[in-house]
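Input record, target 12 of the design panel.
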């Protein structure tokens, strides 16, 4: 991953960027400074005070680690629950369907609720993501078939600014609608923490297939064809 995380073509279950977050501004540098300061203070304590101070520091560190673990598990819960449900054939409703997000390069908004009744290929991407560049032709080719069958690809920007996203769309000849997830809350509801990711949503608004890494080969075409056959 890079820049908050694009996903390599071989990553079936990519590494969570939070797992390496401690190496950044909240990581080893800040921790070592705090540890050094605490050590200096302990140097002035009497032996009896140290017996109380050292366990207190250990408890504080343990509490912090538990808090980080709880945060990670809670955030990954959405991702794992959606994946597990789809894998077991218990297709969940697409989350945040009523959320209206601004269209990229156009006036107005779009939402999954507004697209109910259509098959939707929801693709989360970013202009700085190289795997997203590689899969762009696959998505655009599929869009040309989808529009003939009351279906569409719907792009969603991830940690990107409007001008770069618009340039990406123009450079790769993208004709399907793209919405801007400015806050990031929409894609988080899908358990997304990197790009690219793709979710296939049926006409009833349920997620029936997904990939949390780069599209390749004919997976998308075969998946959509199967769903189209089932919905006719």
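The sequence produced for target 12 reads:
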């Amino acid at each position: 991953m890079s820049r908050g995380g694009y996903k390599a073509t071989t990553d079936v279950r990519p590494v969570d960027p939070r797992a390496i977050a401690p190496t950044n501004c909240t990581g080893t540098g800040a921790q070592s400074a705090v540890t050094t300061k605490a050590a200096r203070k302990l140097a002035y304590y009497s032996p009896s005070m140290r017996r109380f101070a050292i366990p207190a520091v250990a408890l504080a560190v343990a509490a912090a680690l538990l808090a980080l673990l709880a945060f990670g598990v809670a955030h990954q819960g959405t991702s794992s629950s959606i994946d597990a449900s789809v894998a077991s054939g218990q297709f969940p409703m697409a989350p945040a369907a009523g959320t209206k997000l601004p269209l990229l390069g156009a006036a107005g908004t779009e939402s999954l609720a507004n697209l109910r009744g259509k098959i939707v290929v929801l693709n989360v991407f970013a202009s700085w993501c190289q795997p997203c560049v590689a899969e762009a032709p696959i998505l655009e080719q599929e869009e040309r078939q989808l529009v003939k069958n009351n279906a569409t690809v719907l792009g969603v920007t991830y940690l990107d600014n409007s001008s770069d996203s618009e340039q990406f769309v123009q450079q790769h000849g993208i004709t399907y609608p793209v919405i801007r997830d400015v806050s990031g809350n929409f894609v988080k509801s899908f358990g997304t923490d990197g790009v690219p990711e793709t979710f296939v949503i049926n006409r009833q608004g349920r997620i029936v297939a997904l990939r949390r890494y780069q599209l390749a080969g004919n997976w998308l075409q075969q998946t959509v064809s199967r769903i189209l056959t089932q919905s006719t």
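The chain is about 45% helix and 15% strand.
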